[in-house]
Amino acid sequence: MRCVVTGGCGFIGTHLVDRLVRDGHQVIVLDDLSTGNLEGLNPLAEPLYCSVTDSHALAAATEGADVVFHTAAWARIERSVADPVGTHAVNAGTVASSSGAQRPMPKRWSMNRPQRR
Asked: Which CATH class for the 2-111 domain?
């Protein structure tokens, strides 16, 4: 499967990318490195350095994707208070910006959600 992982250089993203690569999938990582880093990125993944708020880059990265895992997020409360619109654009706006594109959508989207206990 062709998989795209947004925020793939972050803590959750790198673990997901490792698992997808280990399972034999083609993995494209979309990350602007604002909170993640390249140190933990699997060398078999294809990195694309851009923001999930860049609709053109997102459209290009997700073209032909079977699934998109959205793990990109601004997690700092201070940042979300200082820039709530920007925080929303990164944390939840990816699906909205992609769904507005005039092209076929990936077959599946997976949003990073907290688990209930």
From this structure: alpha beta
